[in-house]
UniProtKB/TrEMBL annotation:
Its main location: membrane. This is Threonine/homoserine/homoserine lactone efflux protein. It comes from Litoreibacter albidus. One of its GO terms (cellular component) is plasma membrane. The chain crosses the membrane at residues 38-67, 74-91, 152-176, 188-206.
Length: 207
């Protein structure tokens, strides 16, 4: 693969990561609701979850999971249930008349925010297939370990830019002011999107 082709691959990886989905919704919602620190923490959890799947794919675990469909099924049901749970919480918050500060106080500390982000990626079986697919394209058969881990490092760096960039963007004062004015609608929208994402994971064909 030439340098130009690899650059295009990284661009495609960035666009895929930045497209609306559970991870970007979690970062955007947390950053607007709780501020930059919480947004960066949930982004860190998501990045670590992504890195875990990236390492698994680099070690050939995606092929192992394809060969053992029951592993995928367990992850799929756990992931779908977790996303639906997040959707229920967001909908309940959006339908609540309590002020923003009261709703925030029940969301836990930064450790729980980190775990939320981590679980979002660890319980999404499509993540490992995404990493596996990108490795299949970027790393020719028979490549040595250096090529594999250099590819991982490049993809991981792009993921960091995308996810932490989301946290910084959606924690700006303009976004926060907009969220405070429209908190209920944001919460309801996030709840519906999380629920939809859970249903998509539950019903998707992963092979």
């Amino acid at each position: 693969m030439t340098g130009a082709e690899f650059a295009l691959l990284l661009l495609a990886w960035a666009i895929g990561g930045a497209s609306p989905g559970p991870a970007t919704l979690a970062i955007a919602g947390t950053s607007m609701e709780r501020g930059r620190a919480a947004g960066l923490v949930v982004a860190a959890g998501i990045v670590c979850g992504s890195a875990s799947w990236g390492i698994a794919a680099a070690l050939g675990m995606s092929a192992l999971m394809v060969a053992n469909a029951w592993l995928v099924e367990i992850l799929r049901y756990v992931g779908a249930a977790y996303l639906m749970y997040l959707g229920f919480k967001a909908l309940r918050s959006g339908l609540s008349d309590k002020p923003l500060a009261t709703v925030q106080a029940k969301r836990g500390g930064l450790r729980s925010v980190y775990v939320k982000g981590l679980l979002l990626h660890l319980t999404n079986p499509k993540a490992v297939f995404g990493w596996g697919a990108i490795f299949a394209i970027a790393v020719p058969p028979g490549s040595d370990a250096r090529v594999v881990w250099e590819t991982f490092a490049a993809l991981f760096a792009v993921s960091n830019v995308v996810f932490f960039g989301y946290a910084l963007l959606f924690s700006t004062e303009a976004f926060i002011r907009g969220y405070q004015k429209m908190r209920r609608w944001f919460e309801i929208s996030f709840g519906l999107m999380f629920g939809f994402a859970g249903i998509k994971i539950l019903t998707a064909r992963l092979t």
